[in-house]
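Students often ask why inverse folding is considered easier than folding. One informal answer: many sequences map to the same fold, so there is more than one right answer. In these notes we will look at a single instance of the problem. The structure comes first.
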């Protein structure tokens, strides 16, 4: 049960395929969301990421599935690492999508990139 006036948090992920901080962060977010006093959502820049020779969709990632099972809302800007997007440049459509996600959040969180593995 989510308390309507509780803390609302939006976490921004580069993708669902890096280890370390994102694994821990996703576990904590799922637990806090299920506790009912906080409402969490996640916005991923990429909906699929190439890791070694495999292109992985975010829906196939165990952290994605655990967050969804906990009731966390997850959105994506729809990027693919194979598309060669400049990570410093976002389209108007992507910015509007991010703004829609951020409207209801009171707090933003970006897990550390320093512990990325394999990407």
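Output (designed amino acids):
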């Amino acid at each position: 049960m989510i308390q309507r006036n509780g803390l609302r948090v939006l976490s921004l992920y580069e993708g669902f395929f890096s280890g370390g901080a994102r694994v821990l962060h996703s576990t904590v977010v799922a637990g806090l969301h299920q506790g009912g006093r906080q409402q969490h959502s996640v916005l991923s820049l990429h909906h699929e990421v190439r890791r070694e020779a495999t292109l992985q969709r975010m829906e196939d990632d165990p952290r994605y599935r655990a967050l969804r099972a906990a009731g966390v809302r997850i959105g994506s800007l729809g990027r693919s690492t194979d598309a060669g997007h400049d990570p410093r440049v976002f389209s108007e459509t992507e910015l509007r999508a991010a703004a829609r996600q951020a409207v209801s959040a009171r707090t933003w969180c970006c897990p550390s990139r320093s512990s990325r593995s394999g990407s």
